[in-house]
Design brief:
Distance between the termini: 89 Å
Shape: elongated
Radius of gyration: 33 Å
CATH class of the largest domain: Mainly Beta
Helix content: under 10%
């Protein structure tokens, strides 16, 4: 394959299948196309940044939280209709996003219909090598991927090999690049090269950006959900690991906190992975384990259901009264309970005759 930079110079290529490395120029831009995986964890893939389009509408744009955004939202190319893709062959998950904090296996994206229509996305470029993964697709169309460095320091990467004349195909473009100078941009355009019916389209689903030796977010597990009964405490056992970056400081800190619940929560040691926790009231509590490596943060939640201790029923037999035989007495009592223990039969009650000369006087009593 031959590619051309913005100045009209022809770069030399080393080609193997769909993989091309451009040599003999100050910058670097290489690309490859492979089949898209069935499931993608964007949190794991995008150490520097990630992006997803179309979660709930055609305008939905989610990206990595807690970092400077580097992957731009798309700019539409050409006319054509912009729509939300609802059933993609590839599903996406994340746990560190904004504005949507997390998603699990969402098969969504966006698409544009018509020859020449598509999307443009940009990412920053400088003399640091970076890798961008672009998750795309098409339906009844041939697609065209163009990637260009703004300083022209490497030949553009162009590929038109993804094609399906009757159905849907997804692909993963992997672009490794670095510019010849600081403050540059890599521009990526994904468009319909040829359409095989009036609805032929290209889809844009997600992107992930990373770099060699880039700091990865910690991996955190808060443990399994559990149930306790007051006044017992819960034993928390979390795990956290990290890649040791950034270094310095090369350290990982962990903290337990309460996310929700009706009462006060007290941790034995909020900074220990394994600790105890006590609760002031019954209810359902969500607790969060947070790990921070001074650059990136990761969290995981655990749910603790806290049951009350069984309390004795509350009983009222009514007010004392006096009658004259042969009249009868009208008794009106009340009884309530906390519903515990769950396996017990309903509270029972009966009357016991008291001892009072000349009268029949009853008092309340609980049955065993």
């Amino acid at each position: 394959m031959t590619s051309q930079d913005g100045s009209g110079n022809i770069g030399s290529d080393i080609t193997a299948g769909n993989f091309s490395i451009v040599t003999g120029v100050p910058g670097q831009l290489s690309g490859s196309l492979t089949a898209a995986p069935v499931n993608v964890d964007l949190t794991a893939q995008g150490a520097l940044d990630w992006a997803h389009w179309g979660l709930t509408s055609a305008s939905s744009f989610d990206h990595r939280a807690g970092v400077t955004q580097q992957i731009s939202n798309f700019s539409p190319i050409g006319g054509g209709t912009l729509s939300r893709q609802q059933v993609s062959p590839t599903s996406y998950s994340w746990s560190n996003g904004t504005p949507t904090a997390s998603a699990t296996n969402t098969p969504t994206g966006v698409y544009k219909v018509g020859t020449g229509s598509g999307f443009e996305v940009t990412v920053p470029a400088d003399t640091t090598s970076r890798t961008l993964k672009l998750y795309i697709g098409l339906w009844d169309a041939q697609g065209k991927l163009e990637a260009t460095l703004s300083d022209g320091s490497a030949a553009s990467y162009v590929d038109t090999t993804l094609i399906n004349q009757t159905a849907t195909s997804n692909g993963l473009y992997t672009l490794t690049y670095q510019a010849g100078s600081a403050g540059q941009t890599l521009r990526i355009r994904w468009t319909v090269q040829a359409s095989f019916n009036s609805f032929g389209n290209v889809t844009l689903q997600a992107a992930a950006l990373t770099a060699p030796f880039a700091n990865q977010a910690p991996t955190v597990n808060a443990g399994t959900d559990q149930t306790i009964t007051l006044p017992n405490t819960a034993a928390l056992s979390g795990t956290a690991s990290d890649d040791g970056l950034p270094n310095p400081p090369g350290t990982l800190t962990t903290t337990w906190s309460k996310v929700s619940g009706p009462g006060t929560v007290t941790f034995g040691n909020p900074n220990a992975l394994s600790t105890t926790v006590s609760f002031s009231a019954a209810g359902t509590y969500t607790l969060r384990l947070t790990a921070n490596d001074s650059g990136l943060t990761a969290t995981d939640d655990v749910v603790v259901t806290v049951n009350s201790t069984n309390q004795a029923p509350t009983v009222n037999a009514g007010t004392d009264q006096t009658i004259t035989l042969p009249n009868t007495a009208a008794l009106s009592g009340t009884a309530s309970d906390d519903g515990l223990p769950k396996s017990s039969r309903n509270p029972d009650h009966h009357l016991v005759q008291g001892e009072r000369p000349g009268h029949r006087h009853f008092r309340e009593s609980e049955c065993p």
